[in-house]
Amino acid sequence: MSAALGDTAPGAETRLAVRGLRMRFPNGKLALDGVDLTVSAGELVTILGSNGSGKTTLLRCVARLLDPSEGEVLVDGQDLARLNGEALRKARLALAMVFQRANLVRRRSVLANVASGTLGRNRTWRTALGGLPPEELPLARELLRKVGVEQLGGQRADTLSGGQAQRAAIARALAQRPKLVLADEPVASLDPEAAEEIMRLLRQLAVESGLAVLCVLHQPALALRYSHRVVGLRDGVVAFDLRAEFCADQQIALLYKDIAA
Amino acid sequence: MSVDGTTLELAPRSTRSDLLEEARRGGRLGRRLVVVLVALIAAGVIAQAFYVVQARPEDLITGAHGMADLLSRAMPPAWSEIGDILWPSLETIDLAIFGTLFGVLMALPLAVLAASNVTPARPLYYLARGVIALTRAVPDLVWALLFVTAVGLGPFPGALALSVHSIGMLGRLFSEVIEDMDFGPVEALTLTGASRLQVFAHAVVPGVLPSLLGISLYRFDENLRSSLVLGFVGAGGLGFQLLTAMNLFQYQTVSLLLVATFLLVMAAERGSALLRRQVA
To answer: Which residue of chain A comes nearest to B209, CA vs CA?
Structure first.
């Protein structure tokens, strides 16, 4: 039965290792209580959990949008929890994030939005003044093709549908050339069909491009269908960490049950 | 039983709820009293305003004759002097252009400092807020008086006055636009590892630029109207001509100047409305 446990497949490179992560908010609420988690290259891992289980907090701690109280967040070997300032910015280049909303700059073209994902490694005066690095435009076009919206590059971002915008946002995340992609409920504001397509795309990125993808989802069905591994989070603690095909409906149902029940 | 705070604190629970009930019943009566009181105060305020401004409707009626006389003497406008007012008209327009341009240039950095969500440091935030409040609170007419004293008569003090007052008006509106901005793209770009300046240029600027342009165009329209009044304190333009003509009892020139003023203001209003629709 050990194959069912969420151990990383041997040989695959560990891209994210979270160890003993604790997060206590200033108001005293303990959102994460010692979370351990690994994600390897080529793997799509989904975190499931009810509202308030700490799944979004976990993702935001990994990205250092929040400062965890305790524990390690090793992204590509570097402990993000311990870095600050310029060192943090550099280390964070290995990590890209996709949000619930696409968060594109609405008045710019889709291509410009994707190209802006490369700003972190193109720190020139030209880009500081709003210019785009011209040598990255072929990459941006290539990525738009990869996510399936190449024909929309010239359009303004606010003309896209929800699913198209999310694809463009994923292309922007890829433009960063990340090793780890974090997705915070990437399909929550999409219709079911677009949601399936985005999940398919995320899985494809893991399998074909060898990215490590960590995704927070609200829909167990999508999680089971597309992820390699599912992590159940309950009250800030990992309830289970299993390969998707070994997840029982009962275990998942338990995540969403009231504590009192 | 007295109903002051200390008794309420000390009263046992049952008595306290009785008190609350009593207070609620008393509240209805109290509200009626408040309404009457407010009405009386409002009537008093209005009455004293009439008294203080020495409102005499009868003067307005007897004065109608004088007005008609003035109008007849002002007609027809002195069309032949049209060549003489071209330069002052241009001066008025240029006052507005200068005032708006420098207002925008100065207001932009101030607005960035004065927007609570992007300000680099708290002390700078308060400093910028202070500058904006001061330049806004002092009317442009007063700024013009100050600058006329400092740099002498002519359009330049007027242009300075408009600039300074515009800094305050624009700074406040600009900072509000920045504060209301959609922060999703900013967070997204920050996470890609972009520097603060890059995030500002690539996410903040495209997000707020249309609103800023619209506000600036509206400010131009306002500045044009203000620049007419500024002439009255010696700051050049059509206003100064108007004052001179009034003092010399050249009423036909006055009416010509009023026609020119009307046309300029209308043109600016229409033009800025049209452009604002374009950038929206």
So the answer is: A107
